[in-house]
Amino acid sequence: MTSYTGKSIEEILENAAEEKGCSVEELYYNVTEEKDGVLGIGKSVTAEVFTLEDVKEFIFDYLGAYFTGIDFDIEVAIEEKKDGFIINLNADNNAVLIGKMGKTLSAFNTLVRAAVNAEFKKRIDVLIDVNHYKEDRYAKLRAMGKRIAKQVQRSHVAVELDPMPNDERKVIHQILNDWHNISTESEGEGSARHLVIKYVPNPEETVVEEETIEDMSL
User: Is residue 22 a contact partner of residue 2, using CB atoms and an 8 Å limit?
Assistant: First the structure.
């Protein structure tokens, strides 16, 4: 990530865009220092400026250093998406990278995401997959979420799912976001954090229930 100094952030971005050969719209920045000067004279701004291509290069270097350090041969493919990346890893023994119930992969996701966000001081969406394990896992989670939501719609009884990492809970949140009479909530802390699929009654159901309770009290 390169640091630039100029009289304004607009000037910095124009210079950075020219140097990097991109448009200003493709740039991200973090202001690191501002000087007001005296009576407006000598005013300056310093900012770290980067593109998603810089982030991609950092990820490649970080993963290269990491796996070289543990003497592990691996193939890395990075797909850019809106404000983030999907990183697919492939090795002779992918099971080692995934771990039991995907826990090793989940921990590695947390590690790399933290390294990227710390380097660029920005929340960047980074997902690491191993031979499309996550892709298959997400498909199964969507199917499971729909199946359980239908069950909850019929029974009106909430269902607690097993603990799962944030990205997997997010998949179910999204797939059930607009389901009628269904809400999803994350509960618990740390490794015990899990999703609960709940029934949400229609307003008229609530009114009928309240009237029934009043009748019983008379």
Answer: no
Collapse the DSSP code of 196 into the 3-class scheme (helix H, G, I; strand E, B; otherwise coil) and give the result: strand
Task: Kindly tell me the burial class for residue 128, based on how many C-beta atoms sit within 10 Å of its own C-beta (0-12, 13-18, 19 or more).
Answer: buried
Per-residue pLDDT tens digits for 18-35: 999 999 999 999 999 888
Place of tokens 């740039």: 27
Helix (H, G, I), strand (E, B) or coil at 216: helix
Strands 75-81 and 159-160: unpaired
SS3 label, residue 124? coil
d(CA 54, CA 27): 10
Cα 177 to Cα 120, 125, 185: the distances in Å are 31, 20, 11
154-196: pLDDT as tens digits: 999 999 999 988 889 999 999 999 999 999 999 999 889 999 9
Give helix then strand counts, H and E, for the chain.
Answer: 7, 9
